[in-house]
Amino acid sequence: MQKVILNNGVEMPILGFGVWQIPDADECEQAVYDALMAGYRLIDTAAAYENEEAVGRAIKRSGVPRGEIFITTKLWIQDAGYESTKKAFAKSLERLQLDYLDLYLIHQPFGDVYSSWRAMEELYRESKIKAIGVSNFEPDRLVDLILHNEITPAVNQVETHPFFQQVEAAQVMKEFNIRHEAWGPLAQGKNNIFQNDILVSIAEKHHKSVAQVIIRWFAQRGVVAIPKSTHKERINENFNIFDFELSQEDMNAIATMDTKKSLIPSKRNPEVVKRFVSWKFDI
């Protein structure tokens, strides 16, 4: 498995398995188990996904040594704040049946993120977390957090796919040595991505699927990707991207697909912020 080096020296697999929108416990456990059996070693979950317990069971069931697996989970808005962050972290560890986390992220840039970050810095120094980072932070919010705290985030996990390539945001991350991680790397199937003429043409040339081409594109950009599937054959297929390489011509062709627009409502919209903050979970 190809790995990247985070800004604190920790190694992170460049390809992982995401479990967003797999709320069914049995289905989630089986999907994570299948992913681990296929060779994935990065598993990404979140308190707000309400499936940490299922992920923990799958890890235990797999028999894969803990030291070989890189586990990420996230702090939801309702738990923002210094004391509440520490309590939320402890609950996540308990649900996952783990003694430490490899990566802990602030899930959304809302609430008292600065107090949360100070709590996470302490947990990091106590070796309860190997790396800390953020998710869904746009460049201005990311830089503000960096300039007002001691530890720079190791990762920023943001929506990234061929239609929204985050080139400008990636430049800011590179400036501060923050690893770019993509959620929704397959655009959640939107915009007929699997029938896109450019991607289909490249896939046919390499005798690969469109999904494999996209995931390979991420790897060659040095972007960590966490595709999700509940189908074993697709889980295996998405992992099989290390036996071919896209040409510069292929990479240039995919670059032309960038619309520079998100496929989700802007978090700078006040109504969207209100909606996010109103979402409460039994965590």
UniProtKB/TrEMBL annotation:
Pfam family, one: Aldo_ket_red
Cross-referenced InterPro entries: AKR, Aldo/ket_reductase_CS, NAD(P)_OxRdtase_dom_sf, NADP_OxRdtase_dom
Signal peptide location: none
Limits of the NADP-dependent oxidoreductase domain: 15-256
Entry keyword set: NADP, Oxidoreductase
Gene3D superfamilies membership: NADP-dependent oxidoreductase domain
Chain residues that bind substrate: H107
Active-site positions on this chain: Y49
Residues carrying the site annotation Lowers pKa of active site Tyr: K74
GO-annotated molecular function: oxidoreductase activity, acting on the CH-OH group of donors, NAD or NADP as acceptor
Similarity-based family: Belongs to the aldo/keto reductase family.
Protein name: Aldo/keto reductase
Species, as recorded: Niallia circulans (Bacillus circulans)
